[in-house]
Structures are given as structure tokens and as C-alpha cells.
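Final report, results section. Input specification for complex C-07:
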Amino acid sequence: MEWLSIIVQGTLLGGLYAMFAIGLALSFGVMRLVNIAHGDLIILAAYVALSVVDALHIHPLVSLAIVAPVMAVFGYVLQRGVLNSVIGPDILPPVLVTFGFSIIIQNVLLQVYSADARRLQAGWIETASIPLGGGLAAGVLPIVMFISAIAVIAALQLLLTRSEIGRSFRAASDDPVTAAIMGIDTRHVYALAMAIALAVAAIAAVFLTIRATFDPAAGPVRLLFAFEAVIIGGMGSLWGTLAGGIILGIAQSIGAQFNTNAQILAGHIVFLLILLLRPEGLFPKTRD
Amino acid sequence: MTETAPLIEARNLKASYGDIRALFGIDFRLFAGEAVAIIGANGAGKTTFLRCLMGVVQALDSEILFEGQRINGVPSHQIVRRGIAMVPEGRCLFPSLTVEENLLVGRSARRSGTWTLERVYELFPDIQERRYHHAMALSGGQQQMVAIGRALLANPRVLLCDEISMGLAPIIIRSFYAKLPQIRADGIALVIVEQDINQALAVADRLYCFQEGRVSLTGPADQADRDRIVAAYLGV
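Structure output:
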């Protein structure tokens, strides 16, 4: 029964990891952009949430109504103003530029907010739990995170498959030159993709602020978890990314039973094993 | 006949791929509703010329006018919005999109006109049956129908067709060329790039023969003398 509980906790944690990963998967899927700053952008969103909560004295989850649009606009401007000029057939230039952004964001956050670890108070939701029967219980916050992840993925999947902008995302991903000569403004499409990526990152960030402490240097670890979830799941599949997040979460929960250091290590070991045994990931997209 | 301004006019058009010069000063005119064939051997610069018109390849110190306005340096997606659409060489369908989604991408230009999804299916009933299939699951001929339909949904004033017969059986090629008059009936001007001279001349009003990045012959299609075309085509 104790193991069952660990697996449930790990699965629910996987929802958060999936939300870390979705923006990364989206920007890679649509514009072949490997965003090294993605973790730092999540932490940036966490500090934006901190400032909003401090200024308006609202609940962290309510702050999302401001943080998500702010990050979306930031994503649009970042892509349109900078990243569009470095993406292309070669994936290396955007890696270098976003690596630079990663350092800049960390240092700006350090200047503005200091190196202190911060956390947001969310009241009863932090400690409340729901009995699942058989002596099993799960926290309300992890359940809300998990349901949010499913809702975000379902909404994105609908957007990608049913809407005109989703069609443009997929067309530009397949062949940007042909997409342009069919009338698609690829620079605008890429900027929208980054806007959505950072809006989802904002959702993940607000959950992060409630669940754990964060500091300006916390980004790279989130990036690592996001990368692992994307690669375990198989590039280009959002449900696969959720599966990747869940596997990572379960591995970490099991590892944590042995000792706290083993928590992170167990996740990395599972990631490494999957990379060795199934380098294409569990649910690769094999359409083209 | 009154002198009207050309729909497309290229003056002394030059273009390069890196250090390799592909076009050495092309003078080209296309009038409204006209069908013009561009013929020439492999590497003569036909596709490069179309890619210049679409803004994919940048023309060097030369001028391309569409409806009297310069379109050099205008991004491709805006050129489509002004009214030039292209059926690219090798069809270039989007592999992760279904047949119908591929067609709908053609509407991204947001030009209104007589070409609708229904009308494209009327022109090519074969692809309507397979509208929910993935584009790559179709035969070469059906894929070409999707590529043409996709370009028509932009409701262009000019349709650029780059080697629509490439890799297709003669009977299918003939069926495509038989449909071109229906497309022209709407007043859409055609630029047909072909290696197959007979096919191109049968539908064109005028022809341009390209040879190594230059226009080696031009004139009305029905007055074209075969010996001169062969000479202009091969450069012998």
C-alpha cells in the first residue's frame, strides 16, 4: 500500500513536470528551437507571480490571470524581436542565444530579488488532502496540478488539430518556406507559439511557487526535468510529454524512499535507461 | 488593342545562390488573364525565376513589379496576399496535415474569390473522397491535385505552376492540362514552367525559353518554330 501511495504521488508530480516540458516541446516542435532559457523563463514567471501577489495581495492561483498574459506577451516579443532572427536550418545559433538569455535572466533576477529562496502562501490548498480509499490519500494541490496539466494538454491538442492557428503551426513545422508561399506569416506564427509556450510555463511556475521554494538559480534544474520529460515521452507528442513527466515523477518518488539525494538521481537514471533502450522516446511521432 | 500595363514585369532580373549566379538579367512580362510557358533545360533558371517572383529567392539590383508595384524584398506571405500563388516543384505538401488541411492552408492568404473548397473538390473529385487521409498517403497525381487546389484557394490573379507534370504518367498529365482552361476561365493568369515543350505550348499564349539564366527565345506560342525552340532550349 505504501508503494501504491508513492506511485500516486509520483504520477501527480508528473503533471507539474509535464507543464514544465510543454513549452519546450512546443517551441521545438513548431520552430526547431531548443530553448535553453526555458527553465529560467519558468523562474522568471514565478517571480512575476511573486510581485503580483505582493502588490495586489491576491491568491497565487488567481495571479495567473495576470502572470499568464504577461508571459505570453513577453514570449511574443522575445520571439518576434530576437529569436526569429536566429532560427533556421541550423539549430545551434538559437541554442547559443537562449543560453545567453538563461544567464541574463538569472542575473537580473538576482539583482532585483536577491538570492533568497522564496515561496508563495496558498492557504488550505497546500495541506488539504482527499482520501482515495483503502487508506490512500492524495494532496489537493498535486491533484489540481495534475488536472491542470491534462486540461492544458487537451486544450493545446484541440488548438493544434482543430484551429487555423494550429494548422499553421503544423504547416510551418513541416516546411516553413512552403508555408510562407501559401500565405502563412511564419514570424507571427512562431511568435504565437512562443507566447503559448510561456503562458503554459507561467501556469507551471505558479504551481511551483506554492509547492516548493525557488531562487534565481532554480531554472536549469527545471529545464533538465523538462528535457527529460520531453525526451522520455518522445519528441513532438504532448500526451507523450505527460507520460514522460509521470515516469520521471514516479522514478523520483521511488528514489526519495531511499534517501533525498536518490530522488533526483533516480529520475536521471530512468531517463538514461530510456535514452539507451528507446532513444526515440516512448511515443515518437512518426507521421512524416 | 489598347496598351495595358503588365500584371507582372521583371526588368533585368538577376539572382544568385550564394556565389553561384543563377539568373543573368531576365526581362519578363505577364499580362492579365494570359498564359505564358517558360521552358528550358534543367538548370536554366526556371524555378529560380519563380522563386524570385514569390520572394523566396531575393533578386539582386533589379526590379520586379506586380500590378505596377515593386515586390522585391516583400515577404512571401505578403506576395500571396497581393495575388500571386504557386504550385511548387515537387508539390511540397505538408506531411503532417490531412488532404483537406493542406487545402485549407491555401486560404491563409485571406483573399476572397470564386475558389472555395467545394469548387476545388468539383475540379478534382478524386481528392474529395480522400479528404481526411494524410496527404502523403495519396498517389502522385492526387498529391498534385492537392497542390493545385491549395494554390487556387488563395484566389490568386496569377498562378505559377512549377513542373506540374513531373513524375506523373502521361494520361494524368493530360488530365491536368485539360483542366487548365477551367482555371483560366476565371481570369487567372498562368505561368507554366515545364520541361515538356509540347504540353506547355498547347496551353500557352506566349513562351519564354530560358537557357543558362537568360531568355534565349520569346514570342507567341503558336508562331514558335520548333527548330528555333530546340536551338534556344539546348543552346546549339
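Chain B has one domain: 8-234. Residues 120 and 149 of chain B are 6 Å apart (CA to CA). This concludes the modelling results for the funded period.
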